[in-house]
Amino acid sequence: MTDGTHGARCFVIMHGLPRSLLWTERNIIRHVLEPFRAVCGPLTLVAHFNHPDVIDNPRSGERKVATMLPDMSRLAPEILMIERQHAANVEGKYQILKDHDLRSGDPSPNTHMNLLQGYYSLRRAWTLATQAGLKQGDIVLLLRPDLDYIDPWPAADLVAMIREQGRDLVCPDWHSFGGLNDRMAVASYEGARVFASRWDMVEEIAKADTPRSSEEILAYCIERAGLAVGTFSSRGPRVRADGRTQYDAFEPSLAQKYRWKIRSKLVRTGIRPLRSLTRYIP
Known about the structure:
alpha/beta
């Protein structure tokens, strides 16, 4: 966590569902953490994960997939909290937000519940980061564990955008859907605080009664706080609990397609322990 060549302390906040961390860990380390270590020096990583016993989401195609606790030994977080996912954790917020139009086209409660579970985990992870010493002037990486970070992050450029260009939030330039991509980001302390505070904004969002997707909610919160935004192009397709990668309109390389295809075939065999082999397919 000591200052690196850019004089920047860097914290990593991981949050959400670790449903596919066994497969995504490789690129989290290689394409995100290692580039930032080269620029900032040692990193401080904290994580809060929701842990449902089973993922059953018809919209994503994950049907009754049993989950496993993640192995965090290679990521070595300073603070790790894995919390059993209960509907009760978000029930109060759900009752407030349930009639809000998230533009998802999903008439079931799933989209609202999943959004709130994500906000809940992110808010808890932010608290852990402040307990670990996060403060004004630090740079923050906000990462989901279920994304395959297939492109190296341009760490030096991203640090410069925060420290020299005055950006508070730098997020992907793809899949913004009329707002700001909220899957991953690099941020100043204040940008990260607002990014993580959407849990606290649920009442205001619901009261406004303006249809907003999750990306539009993030854009609303950032604009409301008067923060400056930048973008970068590194991609991160989602990896489902059953090993499938959502292409998300990306055009992966042949090697990536091969790796994803082999992984999906292994998982479909039902021999779940073998899925770790796909970490080592180039």
